[in-house]
Amino acid sequence: MSKSDAELVQDMFYRQANAREYSYFDLPGYSDWATRKLDEGVGPEILGHLEAFTLVMLPDEAAAANDAYFDEALDDLRTSLGL
């Protein structure tokens, strides 16, 4: 079931009030994931590019970030760069 306009606006205000900026290094497990990726041959340049982004997330979203989230972010970055 989709949300009503009022519910979407309420969600937006909640996010504006409670979200904060995170770097990838603030997210649990990122450093270990990045080290594994380097060991797998991912170039430090692409990881550095990814790490340059600031993420605006709710605290529970940041706490839930995991390898699948990081893999998806890396794939999205590669796609946007045409790699």
Spell out the blueprint of helices and strands.
Layout (H helix, E strand, L loop, with lengths): L4 H14 L1 E3 L7 H10 L4 H8 L3 E3 L1 H6 L2 H15 L2
Antiparallel strand pairs: 1-2
Q: In a few lines, what is going on in this structure?
A:
With 83 residues, this protein is mainly alpha-helical. The chain has helices at residues 5-18, 30-39, 44-51, 59-64, 67-81; strands at residues 20-22, 55-57.
Task: Describe the model.
The structure is a single chain. With 83 residues, this protein is mainly alpha-helical. The chain has one domain. It contains five helices and two strands, in the order αβααβαα. The protein has helices at residues 5-18, 30-39, 44-51, 59-64, 67-81; strands spanning 20-22, 55-57. It has a two-stranded antiparallel sheet with strand order 1-2. The chain starts with a helix and ends with a helix.
Number of strands: 2
Query: How far apart lie the N and C ends?
Result: 37 Å
**What radius of gyration results from the CA coordinates?**
15 Å
How would a textbook summarize the main sheet? Answer: 2 strands, antiparallel
Mean pLDDT: 95
User: Spans with pLDDT under 50 lasting ≥5 residues?
Assistant: none
Keywords:
single chain, 83 residues, mainly alpha, two-stranded antiparallel ribbon, 5 helices, 64% helix, elongated
